[in-house]
Amino acid sequence: MAEIILHIDQLVKRFGGLVATNHADLKVERGSIHALIGPNGAGKTTLIHQISGALQPDEGAVHFMGQNITQVPMHQRALRGLVRSYQITSIFKKLSVLDNIALSVQARSGSSMRFWQAARSESGRYAEAAAVAERIGLGQKLHTLSGALSHGQQRQLELGLALALKPQLLLLDEPMAGMGPDESENMVALLQSLRSEVTILLVEHDMDAVFRLADRISTLVFGKVIASGTAQEIKDNPEVKQAYLGDEMGVDAVAH
Ligand SMILES: Nc1ncnc2c1ncn2[C@@H]1O[C@H](COP(=O)(O)OP(=O)(O)OP(=O)(O)O)[C@@H](O)[C@H]1O
Questions:
Q1: How far, in Å, CA of 25 to CA of 211, rounded?
Q2: What was the pLDDT predicted at 131?
């Protein structure tokens, strides 16, 4: 069995009387694309927040690469390689694509503090940023102002900002949101191309994209993971079907 890079162990998060995360268990294997699905309000975002460190759980533990990181603050999780896309830097619209990515490279290396190395590190940083831009399909847009990019390209850039942090595990919350069919197709291809480099935990409502991308899918219902398995296992699972009945995002809609 592959290494478990992320282990969510009996996590509980309450908002007043509402149990948004209810003894959730989840294991993500290194090298996989793992999707987290569930009906609206199931608690997907709340769970992602607890994994990234934006929210503290009331009970349970988050283990990352064999270490209990439940008390580790968000920025330190990112430095350890657990990166939520868009968590550290959001796009600076008035800066170029290259400058945006270079800032993210700098955030990882902390080179702003090492000003005596500035001249040398600057060229390295920009070379690395250009390589990331190429990687995300924006190699022809290095000097374009980020605000002038299309919506889909801005989402690609957001992904680039996360990749520049050299993550081991990338958390993506609805990367296809607001995209047209062509842009979604590009993003699916981009995520496919990343599978050999980084483990991905993905929350996504676009079931077609989920079924095409995910090696494993976990289904969250009322804050609890009710099933984990391959796309086919999830499509065939009666509890999952039941949970989606009446939901317009129903797995049945794409299962046939
Ligand atoms: N800060 C908060 N305070 C109170 N209740 C919250 C808070 N954040 C989320 N909730 C509630 O927790 C539940 C889970 O919400 P969450 O946003 O995690 O679900 P989700 O699965 O991501 O939903 P969606 O698919 O619609 O984005 C919902 O009932 C929501 O109203």
A1: 21
A2: 96
